[in-house]
Specification:
This protein has about 270 residues and is an alpha/beta fold. The chain has helices spanning about 5-10, 15, 20-30, 50-55, 65-80, 120-130, 145-155, 175-185, 205-215, 220-230, 235-250; strands spanning about 40, 60-65, 85-90, 105-110, 130-140, 190-205, 255-265. A seven-stranded mixed beta sheet has the order 3-2-1-4-5-7-6, sandwiched between helices. It binds S-adenosylmethionine.
């Protein structure tokens, strides 16, 4: 079994995605989606960005490695009556089933960053984008003090060391790496721009309940709890994450936690 696929099928990311809907919609509103634009959303989950992109008139294909999330995305598209939105299984490291120069816009928000072989992923994203098209990525930033970068950092400190040759997804949050990867795919750095942006995680209960969702449904955190449990360190992990969620929350009894990410735009000519 592909370890990357197993990681994301292990939990149920739809439970976390529920807290990200407003930010997904707001991001999609900022990236120039117009009627009839051919859009690929890569590592789309259940459609936090794909669905509002389709509502803005794009013809959207969501591709994700996790079959449960593809099914959830298709169910959401059907429930909204969106005939211009469909989801299928696929791997950002090998988009064989998609033709060259097929999309005006390729979006990947905290998606392709999790695929192995980042250089191959950059090449695949460039290959399927039309000349004159754009790639927009959202990538968490290593050592950033906000929520998700810290969850991933804390989780990895309780997990076994990764296998040899593993490239951390967080390396996509460093501008030099992004320039190097797209450079190797033939895109000069003048065509790549960067912005710091924010996603806010909103949840109707207290931060401890949102942490409970991560513990039970977010693959990387689930694995960390399993590893910590095997080492007798589960309570330490719970306490460390609990402090993080409480300290970052600005909303009292409900939860609203902002998280900073690197927004990358790659313009193809
Ligand atoms: C943090 S979630 C983000 C999902 C979605 N973009 C969103 O913003 O809600 C990461 C997503 O990337 C997907 N993913 C991870 N590795 C992938 C790969 N190699 N190819 C395609 N999708 C992948 C996961 O299945 C998961 O849906």
């Amino acid at each position: 079994m592909n370890a990357n696929k197993a990681l994301w099928e292990k939990g149920d990311f739809t439970r976390i995605a529920e807290s990200m809907r407003e930010s997904g919609e707001s991001l999609v509103g900022k990236i120039g989606i117009t009627d009839g634009l051919e859009i690929l959303d890569l590592g789309c989950g259940d459609g936090t960005t794909a669905l509002p992109a389709a509502e803005l008139g794009g013809n959207v294909l969501g591709v994700d490695i996790a079959s449960n999330l593809v099914a959830a995305g298709n169910a959401r598209a059907e429930a909204r009556g969106l005939t211009n939105l469909r989801f299928q299984e696929g791997d950002a490291s090998d988009l064989d089933e998609l033709g060259d120069e097929s999309f005006d816009l390729v979006i990947s928000i905290f998606g392709a960053m999790f695929a192995p072989n980042p250089s191959v992923v950059a090449k695949e994203m460039v290959r399927v984008t039309k000349p004159g098209g754009r790639i927009v990525m959202g990538n968490w930033i290593p050592n950033d003090p906000t929520l998700v970068a810290q969850i991933l950092k804390i989780s990895s400190s309780y997990s076994p060391p990764p296998p040899d040759g593993f490239v951390s997804p967080m390396t996509w949050g460093v501008e030099e790496n992004v320039i190097e990867r797209f450079g190797a795919a033939g895109v000069p750095k003048e065509q790549i721009s960067f912005e710091r942006d924010t996603y806010t995680f909103n949840y109707p209960g207290p931060p401890s309940e949102l942490l409970g969702e991560f513990k039970s449904y977010y693959g990387p955190t689930m694995n960390a709890f399993e590893a910590a449990g095997a080492d007798g360190r589960e309570a330490d992990l719970e306490a460390e994450l609990g402090t993080l969620f409480d300290e970052q929350n600005s909303n009292g009894d409900t939860t609203s936690i902002p998280a900073t990410f690197l927004r990358v735009s790659v313009d193809l000519i």
